[in-house]
Design brief:
Two copies of one chain form a homodimer. The first copy, chain A, is α/β, with parallel strands linked by helices. Chain A has helices at 47-52, 62-67, 71-76, 80-84, 96-101, 128-138, 156-186, 192-196, 211-224, 240-250, 268-276, 286-292, 324-328, 331-339, 343-370, 373-383, and strands spanning 5-10, 17-23, 26-30, 32-34, 36-37, 58-60, 90-92, 104-108, 113-116, 123-126, 142-144, 200-205, 228-231, 260-262, 281-283, 295-298, 301-304. Chain A has a nine-stranded parallel beta sheet with strand order 4-15-14-13-12-11-7-6-5. Chain A has a three-stranded antiparallel beta sheet with strand order 1-2-3. Chain A is globular and about 60 Å long.
């Protein structure tokens, strides 16, 4: 497969990397955070605001979009970029994670997964081939293979069998893309499926909390030669040490010249710890989800702006923060908005939180370039007050 | 009192007027629509978006802000402009309407109104003097006198007594402002109360659906010499004909050189009918409230974007609409957002609806200047499909 990933700098004191990934819809500087646009919208935020936040890529959830509005609608609109009016890169997951966390009455066979969706209970079937078809129709710039995401805790035998199934499914995704990519390229009309031939496909490493399974899964994926590699099945309820270990077990077996994506995490310190372990890309609902609950991220930890202590606070959410919210609005006003259930309140915190995540990645990139990433990471993690932070090493 | 209202043009075929009202925070071109910022925020919209929509003034609800966050908080932040980060003009109502529509266990005496607020049931008392104090603390550019807003239907005797009480309360508001304005002007420190001395105070005409009471109320208010006159107690459930008649009964007794404000209305055709009857200013929650329910305003009437017919609609909410929503997003996408309960959906419709209202006022101003307002009004009302539109005359 093509290689559109360029490694610009590597940290001497950790596995942190500074890279650049080229897609049909633009460049992504890594380490990168991808805001999550579950249902064709990053919750509370407009595409224009995403541009102003310097978000270089958003994630779309295949499962949610498949269930609603449905593939026919998105095909009719010429793909997800057109539908949601976002012309930057889009990474789509395969739907696997949501089938295993949201859908009901799942039945997994070699062929694929049958399930009832969580909205109207309609039955559906997704195979590796169908997962690729859907992502092609969405017009994904970076597609993910269909995987089974095992829960935590999970018995060794089940995790082993599941990782093998994920590897066989990954192979079928790889083959579908090879086959259909060639056919599509011979076609004349421009369409999301045609453009999908030039898009990227990432494999997903599974294996639960077992070092040898993580290694074997990584090796199986690398053998299939993907455009990038994700660590899946992390941040599913396991202790933070286990999450780090899952990444540490797989990472040495991934090629350095391909991007690595730690799926579905995390807190700001977790992302820095993952960067230090060689990860390049992240997605997480925390900045948008916590904002809707009145919680803001700062370098000193999270703030719950509902608290009475902020009622008369004239300061911004975070001193010296360059985001639009902090430049213009006080904690006291935002607290009032949240207490009064005004939509502007969650909008303002969402903008701040996304800025906070995106800015952390920007800082990390600069620190890697300057050779100071490891000090930066240690200082940041030490400053950040959270109950489950892992100790500074 | 000062007169900061300039009449720029008058329609030959109706009572429509084109004017300009100067306030300490900027100029308001009339006819003007004032978006409603009930709790210190126009629902779903940021101050920056209000600027981009060319909103020249917003309305703040004294009752809501008095109940939450409370006057101490707003005083601490130096007034409502600072608190909500809006530096354009603000008109505040007196709280009267909400006391009579939202609060519980009201007890009206000559002195004022005692009530339980609708949030935590705490008892409070508002007199004409307190209503002025609150609006001074909010830093209002245009304050309203405390009035009793009678329901529809209302017996003649009650409406008569109530209008007389409102007139006595208006006198007390006028006196409070005169007294405290002088004191404040002698003070040295800049504060919302100091600036309130230079703000405007509008009287409110009541009188229910009774022509003679409306006339008497208008005359009583004019005798007190306010900076502008509002028609209150309209759009409270009465038939549209009654609403128009209430305005027609009062308007001839209002001075032409002062602004007139028809409170709490209406649909786009209603506003044009009110402009034709000599009204200059409007406020209404319809554009923001209906947006949250998926309903958009267009020149052809309202659209409920939840309807299945829009699922595959690639067109904008309204053809040739210059708003940000219509320039970028399709009906089909917005329908999806509303069905999926995505906040962006109501944001996009809110922006369109506010643009629609503000743009209608801008059009009305141009048509008045060009001497074509009456044709414009008739054509607009005839085009607009709504169940309760009054016939074109």
């Amino acid at each position: 497969m093509q290689n559109d990933f360029e490694l610009l700098a590597s940290d001497q004191h950790s596995k942190a990397r500074r890279g650049r990934l080229k897609t049909a819809h633009g460049v992504i500087d890594t380490p990168a955070f991808m805001p999550v646009g579950t249902q064709g919208s990053v919750k509370g935020v407009s595409p224009r605001e995403l541009c102003e936040l310097n978000a270089q890529i958003v994630l779309g959830n295949t499962y949610h979009l498949f269930v609603r509005p449905g593939l026919d609608v998105i095909k009719h609109f010429g793909g997800l970029h057109n539908f949601m009016s976002w012309d930057g890169p889009i990474l789509t997951d395969s739907g696997g994670y949501q089938i295993f966390s949201l859908a009901k009455l799942r039945k997994i066979t070699e062929e694929g997964v049958e399930f009832q969706n969580h909205i109207d209970g309609a039955r559906a079937f997704i195979s590796p081939e169908i997962a690729m078809e859907i992502q092609a129709a969405l017009g994904s710039d970076i597609a993910m293979v269909l995987d089974e995401c095992v829960p935590y805790p999970c018995a060794y035998d089940y995790a082993a069998k599941s990782a093998e199934l994920t590897a066989r499914w990954a192979k079928r995704c790889r083959e579908w893309k090879g086959r259909n990519g060639e056919t599509a390229k011979r076609g004349l009309t421009d369409s999301p499926v045609r453009r999908f031939a030039d898009s990227m496909l990432f494999g997903i490493v599974q294996g639960g909390t077992f070092n040898d399974l993580r290694r074997a899964s990584a090796q199986a994926m690398v053998e299939l030669d993907f455009d990038g590699y994700a660590i899946g099945g992390v941040s599913v309820g396991e202790p933070e040490e286990e999450m780090m270990r899952a990444v540490e077990s797989a990472e040495p077996f991934l090629p350095t010249h391909k991007p690595r994506y730690a799926m579905g995490l995390g807190t700001p310190p977790q992302m820095l710890q993952m960067i230090a372990r060689g990860m390049d890309m992240f997605d997480c609902v925390l900045p948008t989800r916590l904002a809707r609950n009145g919680t803001a991220f700062t370098a000193a930890g999270t703030l719950n702006l509902k608290n009475a202590e902020f009622a008369l606070d004239k300061g911004p959410i975070e001193e010296n923060c360059a985001c639009e919210t902090c430049r213009q609005f006080s904690r006291g006003y935002i607290r009032h908005l949240i207490k009064a259930e005004e939509i502007l309140g969650l909008r303002l915190i969402t903008l701040h939180n996304l800025h906070s995540y995106l800015n952390l990645m920007s800082q990390a990139r600069t620190e890697i370039e300057n050779g100071t990433f490891d000090q930066f990471r240690k200082a940041f993690v030490a400053e950040y007050k959270t109950r489950d932070a892992i100790p500074v090493e």
